[in-house]
Amino acid sequence: MNHRIFSIEIPRDGLHRRLGGGIPTSTITAISGKHGSGKSAIVQRLLYGLLENNHNVTYISTELTTKGLIDQMDSLGYPVLEYLTARHLLFIPVFPLIGKSIPRKDFLTRLMGAKKLFESDVCIIDTFSALVKDQLTPYTALDAMAFFKKVVAGNKSVVLTFEGGDLSKDVESAIFSAVDILIEIERSIGEGEIQRVMTITRYTNAQDYVGSVIGFRVEAKRGIIVDITTVA
Length: 232
Fold this sequence. Notes:
Helices cover 31% and strands 31% of the residues. The chain contains nine helices and eleven strands. The strands form two sheets. It has a nine-stranded mixed sheet, sandwiched between helices. A two-stranded antiparallel ribbon has the order 1-2. Strand 10 and strand 11 form a beta hairpin. It is globular and about 40 Å long. The model has no long low-confidence stretch (mean pLDDT 92).
């Protein structure tokens, strides 16, 4: 099979050149990191790149309202209002509508039954672990991955984010061993500055060069800035 990619290229940064040009079709991507690591900023950069390259995206968020998404993306220099109004972006806010204090143990079941969410080229769920942490066991995690594999078999892609500590090690292991792309993000403080690094643990079906370690910054109105001094 000739695998192609969903391009994420935008003129202002070279992130696409470090990630094989984009997200390969028929893949499941996991992006993992602790709170504040920058994983949502990376996801929002991917989202904007996909939209700019004429791909339709479903974005499910556990933190943002629609207004919050528009404001957040504008703050990074990634405007999405026109994509929302043109229906190239289907945005689904979750917790802002029901409240984080309400326990829900049927998110995974409801998600797997919502076929319309997966009609887009790419479906992003940020943060997936927050949605399903009350439901997943190692066995149900495998069921979830089997479902996503059926989704992406139709030349789609799914991107899931995970916050450290949400899931047990057994559940994380079951999921991470099943995904096609695994990106782990860490944040540290060095020389008085916040340093963020993406480690590319796995990148199946890449069409071009993929860096193993990618340093980056997050700046207002500029979004993701790749740090070429920490790229390997």
